[in-house]
Each structure stands twice: as C-alpha cells, then as structure tokens.
Amino acid sequence: MYEPSSAIKGKPAVFEAHPENPAVKALADLATDAKFDRDELTITVTRESIIAACEAVKQNGYNFLEDVTAVDWYPSEPRFQIVYHVLSFSRKERVRLVVRLDSDSASLDSITAVWPAANFYEREIFDLFGVHFGGHPNLRRIMMPEDWNGHPLRKDYPVEGYR
Amino acid sequence: MASTVEELTGTAAIDPGIEDVVANSALNRGNTPPSDQTMIINMGPQHPSTHGVLRLVIEVDGETIVGLAPDIGYLHTGIEKICEAKFYQQVVPLTDRIDYLCPMTNNLAYCLAVEKLLGLEIPERAQYLRVLFNELTRIQSHLVWLGTHAMDIGALTVFLYCFREREQLLRIFEAVSGQRMMTSYVRVGGLSLEPPRDLYATIRTFLKEFPAHIDEYEGLLQTNPIWMNRLKGVGYLSAEDAIALGVTGPPLRASGVDFDVRRDMPYSGYEKFQFNVPVSNVGDVWARYIVRMQEFRESIKICLQALDGLPEGSIVAHAPKIILPNREQMKTQMESLIHHFKIVTEGFGVPAGEVCSSVEAPHGMMNYYVVSDGTAKPYRVHMRNPGFATLQALETMCKGRLLADVVAVIGSIDIVLGEIDR
Mean pLDDT for chain B? Predict the structure, then answer.
C-alpha cells in the first residue's frame, strides 16, 4: 500500500534527490516548487515562465507534449492548477509541469508556439474551465456549443447542470 | 450580414455549413470573406465515413483542399464531470463508454491509475489476463478499423469478413464479462470474475484460425488496384509533424517514430512478453494500413504467450477494504458482509495525490490523470485520448490533396468520436 512518507516534497529535497534528471537540471532556475511522488516528477513554475519552462524541457529531450489539462481547487486559492504532461521518447519518462492561477487572474500564455499539439487542449480548458490562453491562434469553445453559459468542469458548476 | 460568431449565436437557426461566417470561424480566418476561387464544403456530422459525428469544414479550390477544420463536441457527454460525482469503483462502467471499441483498455488505464494512487500490487494471474484481453480488444478494434476503412474506399466484402471474426471476439468478451461491448471487466485491484475454464480453448481456436483470416483480408485488398491506388502516397505525415501535433499509436509508428507504450513504458507485466513493434518510414495511409496489419500478428503472439504462461493464483489483490468479496464469502462471513456493505455504501478512501497512467490503446497512447483529495470520490479524472490529438493532424495530412482523399485519411487515423468528445 502507498506510504505518504515516501513522497519527496519541496524544491530543495527533490533537486537533491534527483540531481541528474534532465528536467530538474533544465528547470533549476524556473521551478518554484517540486514533488516526487509515486515515481512521478511534478515541477511547479510561475505563470510568466511557462513558455520558457516548456522550451527548457523540450531542449533537454522532453520532446512530446502528451496533454494539457486543469484542476479546479475551488474554493481554495490559487484556484486553478494547469497541468502539462511532457514525455521524453528517448528517456521514456515524463515530467509534469504545473502552473497555479488565482481565480481573479485566470489567464496565462499559450504554448502552441512550442508544441502545436496544445491547440485543442488549451481550447478544451478554455471551454470547460474558463481559463484564458493569451496568444492562442483560435481560442473558441470546442466541446460545448458556442452560446453555452458557464464552464462545466468548474467545481461550482452543478453536475446536473443548471435547470 | 453578422460578422462574428458572437453576433450569430443565439439567433434563429442558421445553416452552419453554408454560412460563411461560421465557416470562417471554424477555419480560423478572422473576418476575411472566402475568396472567389474557393468553396466551403461541410462534411458531417451525419456522414457515413466520418465514423460517428465528426464535422469537417473543408475549403476547396476546385477539388484540391486548401483548408480543413474539424468541428467536434457533438458526442460530448461530460464523462469527466460525472466521474467526480461517483465513487472510485463506480467510474469503471463510465470508462467503457469513452472509447466503445476498446472498453477493456479504458478500464485498464483507469484501474492502473487508481492502483498507483493506492499503491496496490496486482497478482500475476490478473496481469496476464489483463494483457490477454487487452490484446484481444486490440484485434477487435483493428477489425472494426479495417472493415470500415475498406468500406469507405469501396471494398465492401472485407467489412463483412471483419465483422464475422469480430463476432467471435465479442462472444468471448460476453463469456468472460457478461457484456459484448461495455465489459467493465477490469476492476480496481484485479478483475471482476475468473474466466470460464472452457473459454481458453475457444480463445486458442480463434487465435489458431485468425492468421488465415488476415491472409484472406490481405488477399482481398493487396491485390486490388483500386485499394492500392487510393492508399499509396495519400495523407503524408512527417515524423516531425506527428510529434509536434501529438499523434500517437499506429499513425506515429507509420511515420517512422519507434515508440510503443507497451514496450517502452511497460505496464501490467508487458515487459515479460516478446513482441515486435511494427514501424514504417513511409508516413502515408498505406503505411498506417501495413502497420496495423502487422499489429494483428503481434497481438496474436502476445495472446498466445499470455495463455501459455498464465500463472495460477488469485485474480484480485488481497485488499478486503477495497475489493468486493465474492458472493459466497459475502453470504457466509460476517467480516466480508461488513466490507461489502462499507464498499458499496461509502466507497473506499484513496490517499491524496495525483497520478498519470498510460497504456497503448488500439488507437494510440491513452493516459488517465487522476487526482485524489483523500476521499472516496476522485477529485478530477482526465482522459488523454489518442484520437483528440490525432485529429489535429488531419489538416496537415489532407492539405493539397483531393477531396476524396479525406475519406481515406479519416479511415487511416482510426478515430472514435466517443473518446474525442468524452
């Protein structure tokens, strides 16, 4: 069974435990927090540095963007957690980049210039969470109808919908 | 005329395919009117060769495609939202319905994620059976792909043959899980039931006869000049584009990128199996056809290894507070009755954290990202489905080709709209 004590939390601890990991090396300056839990590396970066962070890991062998998604931690702040899963085909491992956003400033830069694959994923987050991506080439709703009110995957949106 | 989508929405019914504004919006061209040289064609959502409810807005110059935009969401059911309102074990039947051609793979990807959150060790017998049924699911899904792909191109006979073999597989799934398609067979901690003893002989018979059927399909298609000409050189996708656009699975390997989750990031004991990963450098529709046809044969190899090496033992992990007891125990033992009651009424708590599990689904890499806040319901479940990303590459594959090639390309990327729209 899972032992919570096995998780390594905090930037200094993770960077000390995995100094050879290319993602750790690449993000030495940009990371604000880190976690190594259940064999998965999570690195938190700031909203301003997401493009720089993506380029840094891309140059260090993490060549494939798997997906971009979000978690809504309503009502706590920072409310939105944007999650990027980036995979390295050569190292056969992934790193999870995380950006945390407050509810009153739910916007960040689009990474479509780094990975065009982010296009649909960012549209999906825009549609279902209402997070805005600056510089996205075609930021429209993708799942819901264009005239839909609200963002269904937000936690304050009822599961049954509004009647 | 209204100039933006915002002005149009909410107004009286418009015909979106013909309406320039909506087409402009879908094709991402701002407010520039379409040129006199080109024409907008609306394909779908009700079109037999879009494999479900995919709508394509296509801009053609004569018969040459200059722009193409997929419009999805017609099958959006909000499964990710529903998952957040269910206990962990109640999510399994929902995962069947995401990609209805490979329910076992979806079940497995979800259960692997929850087991990783819990830190559960799965007995070897359950792992082998999971591999066995996942590979049978791959054969089943590829059969649907081959049949519909061939039918789109006009080779109708292959469709009937493919569905003849698929029927045998669905009967196997029914025998093992009680359901032909929505199996829910893989559960958190193991499997729902021990397969009937005589089923292994049925599977062996199928695996023995199936190679001859593959030869039969190839005989029908690879000697057919129409099939060859419609596929060869069509829908080219380079390795760089495939990686940049998030393409996975057979289309990625047909573009020359040698990556398969089963071999490179093994799960459920795949590291114990010997198999080849078919790769082609050609990158066209034909290469995707060849890669999948070879995957049929590799899947047979894996299935036979799973049957030969199937260990004895339990099909569920020993975790009475997480896994439902069997009926007899529940009716005869007080302890089991309490566990059963607790699991059904309260679910089981999962330690807080976030994990991502990946499996190689028939259509590509499938990830489940599950976030737990320590309660009995998942805080967030996100599925990374292969078709959603692969669809982004459709424009790259079709641009500059003829309109008729779109049908061949859609067939070759093997999309299922259930997994794309979720």
Answer: 86
Sequence letter at residue A95 = V
H/E stretch holding B165 reads helix B156-177
Distance CA B302, CA B279 (A): 17
The minimum CA-CA distance between A25 and chain B, rounded to whole Å, is 22
Question: Is A33 in the B-facing interface, judged by CB distances under 8 Å?
Answer: no
Chain A residues near residue B322 by CB distance under 8 angstroms: none
- Structure letter (DSSP) for residue A70: E
The answer to whether the Cβ–Cβ distance between A37 and B120 falls below 8 Å is: no
Q: What is the structure's pLDDT at B25?
A: 59
Are residues B359 and B112 in contact, defined by beta-carbon separation less than 8 angstroms?
yes
Q: Give the predicted TM-score (pTM) of the model.
A: 0.89
User: Each residue of B16-34: pLDDT tens digit?
Assistant: 444 555 555 566 665 555 5
Which domains occur in chain A, in start order?
4-118 (3.30.460.80)
Q: Which of B27, B57, B76, B359 is most worth mutating to test chain A (most A CB atoms within 10 A of its CB)?
A: B76
- Per-residue pLDDT tens for B86-102? 999 999 999 988 888 88
Residues of chain A above pLDDT 70, percent: 99
B122-318+388-421 placed in CATH 1.10.645.10? yes
- Which value does ipTM take for this structure? 0.93
Question: Is B243 an interface residue toward A (CB < 8 Å)?
Answer: yes
The 10 Å CB-count burial string (b at 16+, else e) for B238-255 is ebebbbbbbbbbbbbbbb
- Closest alpha carbon within chain B to A156: B81
Q: Which of B351, B367, B371 has the CB atom closest to A66's CB atom?
A: B367
Residue A69 bridge partners (DSSP): A83
List alpha helices for B249-333, DSSP H: 250-254, 261-264, 285-308, 327-332
pLDDT of residue B11: 41
Which residues, numbered 247 to 266 in chain B, qualify as contacts with chain A under a Cβ-Cβ cut-off of 8 Å?
A: 257, 259, 264-265
Q: Please report, for chain B, the start and end positions of each structural domain, with discontinuous segments joined by +.
A: 5-71, 122-318+388-421
Nearest CA to B28 among A159, A39, A84, A116? Answer: A116
Task: Name which of B314, B319, B322 is nearest B126 in CA terms.
Answer: B314
Q: H/E element holding B65?
A: strand B64-71
Asked if the C-beta of B82 comes within 8 angstroms of chain A's C-beta atoms, the answer is: yes
Contacts of B118 in chain A (CB under 8 A): 1-2
For CA atoms B213, B236, B402, A116, the dihedral sign is positive
Sign of CA dihedral B217, B220, B226, B232: positive
Mean pLDDT of B139-160: 90
Mind telling me how many Å the CA of B237 is from chain A's nearest CA? Answer: 14
Q: Do B356 and A94 touch (CB under 8 A)?
A: yes
pLDDT in tens, A102-114: 988 888 999 999 9
- Considering only CB atoms, which chain B residues are within 8 Å of A72? 380
From A4, A64, A152, residue closest to B351, measured CB to CB: A4
